Amino acid sequence: MLKGFKDFINRGNVVELAVAVVIGAAFSPVISSLTEKVIMPLISALFGQPKFDHIGEFHIGQTAIQPGFFLTAVANFIIVAAAIYFAVVMPMNALKARKKVEPETTPPAQDIQLLTEIRDLLAHK
Asked: According to its UniProt record, where is this protein located (predicted)?
């Protein structure tokens, strides 16, 4: 039983997942501040209100049904996802593309070239 647990912990993907969770937790305040202090005020300046909490609100008896809170959560998710994509994913992809070196194509050796020509001539006959 302990051997199986040890094997599970020693896999690379478990360690990578743990690192991703820690980095995600550390990166969360950065994205939250970008969302709350930069993007939401811009939305507020453009549309007048950054939250949709009271959109579609209705009452059943004494209970308030507020689908606007769901809309606000969806909008926040999309904003955070876009911020992560444009601030992290795109620059990392550009960096990877810049570092990627195309393998040099060397011409085949002369004997390989001659054998290829012989093969092609025989194929035509």
From this structure: Cell membrane; Membrane
